[in-house]
Amino acid sequence: MSQIPITVYVEMTPNPNTMKFVANKYLLISGDSVEFTSQAEAKGYSPLAEELFNFPFVKGVFLAANFITVAKNDSISWDFVTMELREFIKNWLAEGKDVLVMMPPPKAPAASTDESKPTKTYEPSEYDDAIRSLLDEYVRPAVENDGGAIDFVGFDEGIVTVALRGSCSGCPSSTATLKGGIENLLKSHLPEVKEVVAESL
User: Fold this and answer.
1) What is the CATH number of the domain that holds 79?
2) Tens digits of residue pLDDT in 110-166
3) d(C-alpha 21, C-alpha 27), whole Å
4) 178 in a structural domain
5) 153 and 77, same structural domain?
6) What is the DSSP string of 1-58?
7) Phi/psi of residue 47, nearest 5 degrees
8) What is the pLDDT of residues 72-108, one digit of tens each?
9) What are the φ/ψ torsions at residue 48 (nearest 5 degrees)?
10) Half-sphere exposure of 111 (CA within 13 A, CB side)
11) Residue 6 to residue 8: CA distance in whole angstroms
């Protein structure tokens, strides 16, 4: 079986616990992305993510367009494992192995520990399309460049709720980006927006 010529380069992200591995080919259909936080979660959906969890330091795998963002625990420095991961991913892709065999079902929002606070559901609003459009045009490219993803969750009483995934999830600078960048952008285009908050998945 002949191998496909593949290059994979590594990019640092604003999140010190994640590293972005960029391939010279599309891994997922443009616009799709998926995140796994355990080997069990990846089983049956992403053979690549499932194998990456065999590395003892891997605690998350995010797949999108032409890149893979890997989250690690604090047990080891990136200096010792980056090249090993890059070679593993490069060889996997060169051998034509499956990255994703099917998309997993959407995750339910994290259950609230407070019984009196049920999980929030959002009614569609007249601003949803405009908010999605602004996020897609101005925010998504920058967030993907940093190895993450942003999804619109809902709009209610002036508050836009988004979900941050990949390198954005748990990143120390994501709050500043959310408030200083995304919130200001949406407020300047839509006066109805008062605040932007992130939902933890």
Assistant:
1) 3.30.1370.70
2) 544 444 445 678 888 898 999 988 888 888 888 888 888 888 899 998 999 988 888
3) 11
4) yes
5) no
6) -PPP---EEEEE-SSTTEEEEEESS-SS-TT-EEEESSHHHHTTT-HHHHHHTTSTTE
7) -60, -35
8) 999 999 999 999 999 999 999 999 999 999 998 876 5
9) -65, -50
10) 2
11) 7
The parent domain of residue 38 ranges over 8-94
Domain total of the chain: 2
Q: Which tokens hold the place of 65? A: 């367009």
Instruction: For residue 108, tell me if it sits in a domain.
Output: no
Nearest-angstrom CA–CA distance, 184 and 160? 12
CA distance 180 to 190: 16
The answer to whether the Cα torsion of 140, 182, 151, 156 is positive or negative is: negative
For the CA atoms of 127, 133, 134, 135, the dihedral, rounded to the nearest 10 degrees, stands at: 110
Q: Is 146 contained in some domain?
A: yes
Look-up of token digits 């969890």: 53
Q: For 24-142, where are the E strands, in sequence order?
A: 33-36, 58-64, 67-72
Q: What is the pTM of this model?
A: 0.76
Cα–Cα distance, 128 to 169 (Å, whole number): 23
Residue 140 lies in a domain: yes
Looking at the fold, whether 81 and 135 belong to one and the same domain comes out as no
